[in-house]
Design goal:
RING-H2_BRAP2; 6 helices; five-stranded antiparallel sheet; Znf_RING; 39% helix; alpha+beta; 19% strand; BRAP2/ETP1_RRM; six-stranded antiparallel β-barrel; ubiquitin binding
Amino acid sequence: MMMPSTSTIISGDESPVASVSGESSLSSDMTQTVHFSSGNPRIGETRGVMHLFSDDSVSSSSSSNLPIGRNPLVCVLGVPNHMTYADFCQFCGSFIHHILEMRTVRNDNIENRYSILIRFDSQESTDTFFHHFRGKQFNSLEEDLCRLLFTLDVQFTGYSGSIDHTQPSAAGPIEQPTCPVCLERLDQDTGGILTTMCNHSFHCSCISNWPDSSCPVCRYCQQQPENSVCYVCQTTENLWMCVICGVVGCGRYKEGHARRHWEETEHCYSLELETQRVWDYAGDNYVHRLIQSKTDGKLVELNSHGSLSKDGCGSCEYSDSGMTDALLNSKVDMIISEYNELLQAQLENQKQYFEKLLQNVKEETEQKVSEAASKAISQRLQKLQTRFDRCVKEKQFLEDVNENLVKNKDVWSTKITEMEEREKKGVRAKDEKIQGLEEQLGKLMAQMDGESEVSQTKEVQDATVLPVSTTNTSSSGSGNGIHANKQKSNRRKG
């Protein structure tokens, strides 16, 4: 059966030796056995076995090929731990109205996943749900697929934990439980019932509005945190957690890193993770007032009017109720006063500690700012000095160039003056030379003209007048005369 406190899934005995209905008529190749457990391990744990039809028994998606002898009970295997109860109810969609009961269980040797047993109101709804969700992704962002198997039978094989939380016997009337959220009766006729991994039952419509993965009653979380380790040596034994900052360190019987943390930070309160007891390093004793009961997991006062036995059960030590109340009130007042003083002292110590930290941070910040400013100023001065030196060098270079240019100007001015004077003298000499040559040429021309006239006169006197033909041009006549004159002059020279 699935949830004995509300209803039975399959009729049969709940004892560990209960037989599986119809299992003898089925082949062992068509069924598989899955061990499961449920419940809060700190309080009590229920163990059992599920007999499921294997995947080979379903050859196709048609209803005619579904396993024979199936019940309106299916099991969803391998649901990711981060998927909350509300997420799974939303995943079921419209089929949530056909679900009578759901139970969340843990599979043995499988971490970060859980399974859900679902019982429907009819076989038709079960088959439709099986066809619709088999092999479907839980969401579009992950590759995890919904693995659905028909369930033949469920057997509870045992319970470990407190006697108060064992399964109720079938003898005698059993009062129907109520939903812790809406306080209505957990009746399957009015709505589906979901049982969490810690064995607390709710209406599906109520748990659908709970966004957390923890139980609304006991806060047991189906997604268990990772094992704590020492922040220095990474050991997992004898661990203590600072109740102020949450640092986890090993105890004095290991490397003593928790005590070293107290010496460095002055956080004097540390919680032992195994026993949930609080140790005061400053007072060197335990200072916790509440511990967790092994019976129901609730917090109870330590060393109160009811002493706590080894098994977690309280026993009264006083017979007079008036005296007991008076002692209890006086002890409560004393505890409150002591707690207030202790809290005030601790807060004052923490105030001084954090003020010291703030002062150190402020000084370090001011020092860093001063160093950064000095460094920036020195770098700026160095850059400016470099630029200044470069400018001085450029100025010196320009002054040298200017001085050289001035010197060159004077030299070239003198050279230009000398060249102008030489040019003027040359022009003057050339003019004088040209004038002398012109005079010589004039004299020469005059002399040549005189000689020419004399020679022409003599030729005229010696020459015979000859008739000149009209066809001869003046030019030819003059040419002949000149030729004759030349011959005469040649004879003279000869």
